[in-house]
Design goal:
2 copies of one chain form a homodimer. Chain A contains 10 helices and no strands. By secondary structure, chain A is an all-alpha fold. The first copy, chain A, has a domain of 127 residues: Tetracycline Repressor, domain 2 (Orthogonal Bundle), CATH 1.10.357.10. Chains A and B meet through helix 1, helix 6, helix 8, helix 9 and helix 10 of A and helix 1, helix 6, helix 8, helix 9 and helix 10 of B. Chain B binds a DNA duplex (18 and 18 nucleotides) through helix 3.
DNA sequence: GTCTATAAAGCGATAGAC
DNA sequence: GTCTATCGCTTTATAGAC
């Protein structure tokens, strides 16, 4: 069934890379074409809504990945395993600190207004899923929520600092510290 | 001596607002003109190097502000006062969570390559100044460095999450938690 | 389904009048 | 020092050939 060189689904991770590299505004169709190998014809065939639809598809795929590998395990697995799995999945997804969080990046400037619901939902569900697991581990409600917030923001902050100081190891150190704190 | 409606120095905070709102790529000269009230003639008179020089001026001003209000107090004041002052200054500067960190935002995409030295220096000096104060408070070297990293990344992460979830109070809660942790 | 050509608008930057 | 007009280029998006 592979009628095209690249299926729509195959293009989405490459689109994500383009947006991560250049930001939403900076990711021009020329750069997207270069990164994906898809001409404008193919791109508009797959994503009639243009750049905005491409970014929506990327955010939806990210959301799905975290739903599968992070949020659902946190909600359904044994809490300790869910939390350990979250840290491992997070380390993998962000390439041990070599990859930024696109959702966080989109949140910082006016790009946020285009995707506000997806952005808010991603972080809210992450924090809530983690807080739930912490409650099931015996933390009282307010402390569980506070700790969950603290963990998710530490991951985001570590990604910012790792990139800013060109030191991916800072992200890995942070994950290790979080593992201790949650252990 | 106020020969122009707006001096170069007065324009810089407005330029910072424009870059914070739209990002470096998204901040077009049209939007910058709108935000500052300065026409292209005045902008290129003040900043012959164009947008890049405008952003450099903004980063330099941010750097100077933190040098004065955060890094120097951390290095020279009594450690406890320096740390308390840092948290208060940080809360003020980031408007209690209503303002993002432009340096962190620039770090995330390819904008970083234009300003890599300024970005790296800002965060490195912040972490080092804080680690120094913590050492003088009695923390052993490695723990002081780890804690300083943890605090600065928590501030960055809180700014990302506060904006992503449209909840500035999250930033304020984080500062309060850091105050306890450092108290 | 993918290509090239093209449209219309916007971009950063410059020139020259005032 | 600030304005308007304009340059040359890039942008997103579309149209039409294949």
């Amino acid at each position: 069934m592979a009628r095209t060189l690249l299926e729509r689904a195959d293009a989405i991770p490459l689109l994500g890379e383009a947006f991560r590299t250049w930001g939403f505004e900076g990711a021009s169709l020329a750069r997207i074409t270069e990164k994906t190998g898809l001409g404008k014809g193919s791109l508009y065939n797959f994503f009639p809504g243009g750049k905005e639809e491409m970014a929506e598809a990327v955010l939806a795929e990210i959301d799905g990945w975290f739903e599968t590998h992070v949020f659902t395990p946190l909600a359904t697995a044994e809490p300790k395993a869910g939390i350990t799995g979250m840290l491992a999945a997070t380390g993998d997804y962000f390439r041990s600190g070599n990859r930024i969080c696109l959702v966080g990046a989109f949140a910082l400037d006016e790009t946020r207004s285009r995707f506000a619901i997806a952005i808010n939902s991603y972080f809210s569900r992450w924090i809530n899923a983690l807080a739930g697991a912490l409650e099931r581990r015996g933390h009282a409600r307010p402390e569980a929520t506070a700790l969950a917030e603290d963990v998710v923001l530490a991951i985001q902050g570590a990604l910012v600092l790792a990139r800013a100081t060109d030191d991916p190891a800072l992200f890995q150190r942070t994950l290790a510290r979080l593992a201790q704190r949650l252990g």
